[in-house]
Design a protein that fits this description.
Largest sheet: 2 strands, antiparallel
CATH topology of the largest domain: FAD/NAD(P)-binding domain
Helix content: 25-40%
Strand order of the largest sheet: 1-2
CATH class of the largest domain: Alpha Beta
Number of domains: 2
Bound molecules: flavin-adenine dinucleotide
């Protein structure tokens, strides 16, 4: 989108009719999954720093970076159906069609499914789960994935591997240390089993979860990220090296190699 197209789009999003949540609906929204109209209402440029961010997407025809972009995700093998990434919305359906058709290239789009807010069901992990993802109220039952309060594909898969690892260890009668909090899986595990924040909210993987680097030097933003990442990789390897070899060789053991 050019700046003009983007500004017209944002104005249309802000002016569109929205569905009002029912009284009984919980109105708390997950920060990383805000509806586009809520983002647009924060400021006219908010969307182009969020789901419409053009960074790294120079137009091959002009060599120039567009003002804003949308990402289409292919939904079927034939490439006939696409979804708009990061476009949660509560706009009423006739308005969704009108507003989304303002996106260049989508003027004649046919809509197979319109946007609705999805509900995310998760337990209050710090109260319900022990440090190995087992239910405090029912020994031997472990939860994994989004229902523990991690959010996202990789996070859910990683949480599943941890739950499998803890279950395997319990089965074999082996004690294992959880991954250190300086690693992303360790930090997510800590969040869902021990976060003190109230109300408890789901969490994506993000570098903010990792403790600050141990240095007295003032680091630039890039160096801080690198220091956290380097430490996470080293600590992960050290942690993997402490795991009992039986965990790695059981036929049904979680595929620890994929941690790498
Ligand atoms: C619209 C939308 C867009 C998203 N986009 C992204 C994205 O771009 N990137 C990203 O990382 N994450 C995204 N997410 C989040 C991501 O989808 C989830 O975090 C992830 O799929 C959770 O994985 P999971 O295996 O824990 O749960 P799910 O993928 O929800 O799997 C749970 C499974 O259990 C089944 N089930 C439920 N109840 C029962 C029952 N009683 N008996 C038997 N089976 C049952 C369900 O049918 C489902 O198949 C998105 C989510 C939504 C809703």
């Amino acid at each position: 989108m050019t700046q003009e197209e983007y500004m017209a789009f944002v104005a249309a999003v802000c002016g569109a009719e929205k569905v009002t949540p029912h009284e009984f609906e919980d109105k708390r929204l997950f920060e990383a999954c805000q509806p586009i109209e809520d983002l647009a209402a924060r400021g006219e440029r908010t969307l182009c720093f969020g789901p419409m961010r053009p960074v790294g997407l120079d137009d091959p025809r002009t060599g120039r970076r567009p003002y804003a972009v949308v990402q289409l995700r292919r939904e079927d093998a034939h490439g006939e159906t696409y979804s708009l990434v990061g476009f949660q919305t509560r706009m009423k359906w006739p308005d969704q069609k009108r507003v989304l058709r303002m996106i260049p290239g989508l003027e004649n789009a046919e809509f197979l499914r319109l946007g609705v807010i999805h509900r995310n069901t998760y337990v209050d992990g710090p109260r319900a789960l022990d440090p190995t993802l087992a239910l405090r109220s029912r020994a031997g039952v472990r939860l994994a994935g989004q229902m523990t309060g991690v959010e996202g594909y990789v996070e859910s898969a990683g949480c599943g591997m941890l739950a499998g690892l803890f279950a395997t260890a319990e089965f074999l009668g082996i004690e294992i240390a959880p991954p250190p909090e300086t690693t992303m899986l360790g930090a997510l595990l800590r969040h869902v089993t021990a976060s003190a924040a109230r109300p408890f909210m789901p969490m994506n993987a993000n570098l903010g979860l990792l403790p600050p680097p141990e240095t007295t030097k003032r680091l630039s933003k890039t160096d801080r990220k690198k220091a956290k990442t380097d430490r996470a990789l080293a600590d992960r390897d050290a942690w993997l090296a402490t795991l009992d070899a039986r965990l790695l060789t059981m036929p049904d053991a979680p595929k620890l190699a994929t941690f790498r």
